[in-house]
Amino acid sequence: MGKTLYRCEIHSPYDPLPLTISKALVLAKVREENVSWVDDLQPQWIPYIYTADREPGYFPVPENKGREGMAYLTHIIDNYDTLTDITVFMHASATQWHNDVGDTNSSNVLSMLRLDAVKQRGYVNLRCQHRPGCPTAVHPFDPELLSSPSIVYRNFTTIYTELFNTSIETVPKEIGGVCCGQFALTKERIHQRRREDYVRMRDWAFSTSLDNFTVGSVFEMLWHMVFLEDPVSCPDTQQCYCELYDLCNE
Fold first, then answer.
1. Which stretches within the chain are classed as H helix?
2. pTM reported for the whole predicted model
3. Per-residue pLDDT tens for 208-249?
4. Domain layout of the chain by residue ranges
5. CB-based burial label for 202 (10 Å; 0-12, 13-18, 19+)
């Protein structure tokens, strides 16, 4: 990270949490991924593990389309009225390059995460480093996108208007957000969209001609907007470490 960080002894900009707060961990796995690391998190975290491969003992997804996006949306749709106070959405492996604290260990990320910060903000990406994704991932109206080798960039405005059921006039001039599909949410933030909105987004994933990997990439680029953050959502890196994980500059 470039600078010496330490575990803050005093850092409390947010109101204290209630003594009891319900927490769910949503994971999206494929057959070869070992999720036994989750066992040690119970009962503090309620696990919801979704499988793309119809493995017994896990929650199924209706179609293997959109990578973790299908699992995340399915969880929200199926549990919309009974969501926990906080839900964390993560990839399934015990270690992830996306994790930039806790030696890339997902259990460490969860143990370090300050839930009071999540409650205050409503939505937080679990990653603090800006790249990839920030400061901007795409300028939707850049004429050069028409000749891009990426099918997503070539068709970005169409994808955006279909996914969000909106007009081209509402497409932002620039979009940027911290990578890569791991974040924490309050149920209040999830409920700022109607359940029908999440159903429509999942239906788009079902119906689009884009392949599994590409649909997942679209969601990775736009999760922060799905959950009503600004089009460019790139919190200061050091402030992120400090507020989310108590890792503050000397």
1. 68-78, 106-112, 115-121, 151-154, 156-164, 187-190, 195-207, 212-226, 237-245
2. 0.89
3. 999 999 999 999 999 999 999 999 999 999 999 999 999 987
4. 20-244
5. buried
